[in-house]
Write a structure and sequence with these properties.
By secondary structure, the protein is an alpha/beta fold. It is 32% helix and 19% strand. The structure holds 6-O-phosphono-beta-D-glucopyranose (BG6).
Length: 483
């Protein structure tokens, strides 16, 4: 069992999980891409549902007037929200102000203080939709004008580039904000289907008895995207699939699938269980890692022709816990793959013997529990039933539920996370020890990444990925077809 010995100690008992509601939202990077694609559309929905009641102050270097800023926000909503209502957009526009200036200039920070004073704000949410290299500078500048005493910060991923830089960033942020005032975003934690893993596991008596090494043969978690890097060559070259999604989104999903039940409903207990299971995970063994790169990646703008950056990674993880010892956890992430899906497949062991087999009849397939966590979220139990006819053969039948059809449409992850930050709930954010723990797991893959294998777009990645499967008859299950 390993621990992040060099991480900053946090006394989790001191963490307050619910805080006063915010009276202002400050968006750093308000004219940037994330604000445009995700934040303004989410603010629209929060305005629509009446949750947003506070002024929204954009901070940006772009030399824009308030009106230009509002026009930009309006355009982003019209682009990304179907049938947006004009009256809702108008009331949101009424909340927007822009503080324009250089982040390195003291005057920008004084103007921000004046603007917040003008609104009588005491508890603001400072949302950092800015490049990570700017996080420390912005946090320290907030402190230089006393704003760290007047709110909490929301930090976007990537949270560091490796274990060392994540620890460093935490130290810097902790010198200015307490841990319970740091809201680290992993937007997967804001997805209903991901959060449902907790309900699915702990509200269904049916599952808990089999959710362990006695009954589970393997677990596979796939996060596949059919899109490529979509013109983000410069960004992606500095990241790669392991840093971009495996260390964060995928390991958060694994933690929710593998952890023990929290001791109670206090959000701190949930974080404690995640931290425990992450600590029980061994760092990736590079002989159980396969990296791939889609053919054509090196022709993308901003990508050097000899790039060794992975657009695909598959790994076998081991969890040294009482529940999971000996069960392989296969994970894979990638771009340019056959389908977009996020899916966990729990493969159960075969029955001890077939009762009705006759010579020559095919062995039944193993039961699978497929948890779909992407757009077509839901669950499928792949069970065995008797094939009609005189023989006692069995065949697979799917017992399937589509959550959107059964439960109705759900909110977007960013809308929920912004709403949480405004009311001061840390439940769906990532705690320091969990983030550092996930970096510890992927660190060997960053230090010694090994070879990179090409694969064609629309495939399921390099065939070498099968080499990390433990048994000869193990297969990578393709995720359920999208519908
Ligand atoms: C982001 C990654 O965090 O998650 C992107 O930077 C990726 O590369 C995206 O495409 C996937 O998110 P979602 O919600 O579309 O599955």
């Amino acid at each position: 069992m390993t621990n992040t010995s060099d991480s900053t100690h946090i006394d989790t008992s001191q963490i307050v999980t619910n805080q006063p509601e915010a009276d202002a939202l400050v968006l750093f990077g308000a004219t940037g891409d994330l604000a445009k694609r995700k934040l303004f559309p989410s603010l629209y929905h929060l305005e629509h549902s009446g949750v947003l009641q506070v002024p929204v102050i954009g901070v940006a270097r772009s030399d824009w007037s308030d009106d230009e800023f509002r026009a930009h926000a309006r355009e982003s909503i019209e682009q990304h929200v179907d049938e947006a209502e004009a009256s809702v957009i108008d009331s949101l526009m009424g909340r927007l102000d822009l503080v324009q200036g250089d982040y390195a200039d003291e005057a920008t920070w004084n103007e921000l203080v004046e603007t917040l004073d003008g609104h009588g704000s005491q508890t603001a949410v400072f949302y950092m939709a800015i490049p990570p290299s700017m996080f420390p500078m912005v946090a320290e500048s907030l402190a230089s004008v006393g704003l760290n005493q007047r709110g909490r910060i929301v930090v976007e991923k990537p949270f560091g580039r490796d274990l060392e830089s994540a620890v460093e960033l935490n130290k810097t942020l902790h010198s200015v904000f307490a841990e319970d005032h740091i809201f680290r975003i992993d937007h997967y934690l804001g997805k209903e289907a991901v959060e449902d893993l907790l309900v699915f596991r702990f509200a269904n008596t049916l599952l808990e008895p089999v959710w362990n090494r006695h009954y589970v043969r393997s677990v596979q978690v796939t996060m596949s995207e059919s899109i490529g890097i979509e013109g983000r060559g410069n960004f992606y070259e500095g990241v790669g699939a392991i840093r971009d999604v495996l260390q964060n989104h995928l390991l958060q999903v694994v933690a929710l699938l593998a952890m023990e039940p929290p001791a109670g409903s206090d959000p701190g207990f949930l974080q404690d269980e995640k931290a425990k299971v992450i600590n029980a995970m061994r760092p990736i063994d590079c002989s159980s890692l396969v990296r791939g790169q889609y053919v054509g990646y090196r022709d993308e703008e901003g990508v050097p022709e000899d790039s060794e950056v992975e657009t695909y990674a598959a790994a076998r993880l081991e969890i040294d816990s009482w529940r999971w010892a000996g069960v392989p956890w296969y994970v894979r992430v990638g771009k340019g793959l056959a389908e977009s899906a996020t899916e966990a497949v729990i493969e159960l062991k075969s029955p001890p013997r077939m009762l009705f087999d006759e010579a020559g009849s095919p062995a039944p397939e193993r039961n699978l529990i497929r948890l779909r966590l992407g757009k077509n979220d839901g669950v499928t139990f792949a069970l065995q039933a008797k094939t009609p006819g005189p023989d006692m053969d069995s065949e697979e039948i799917d017992v399937d539920v589509d959550f959107a059809a059964a439960l109705g449409e759900r909110q977007d992850a960013y809308e929920r996370l912004l709403g949480d930050a405004l009311i001061g709930s840390l439940r769906r954010f990532a705690r320091q020890d969990v983030v550092e723990g996930t970096w510890r797991i992927v660190q060997p893959a960053l230090d010694e990444p090994g070879p990179i294998y090409p694969y064609f777009r629309t495939s399921w990645g390099p065939s070498e990925a099968s080499t990390i499967l433990v048994n000869d008859d193990d297969v990578w299950y393709p995720p359920s077809p999208s519908r």
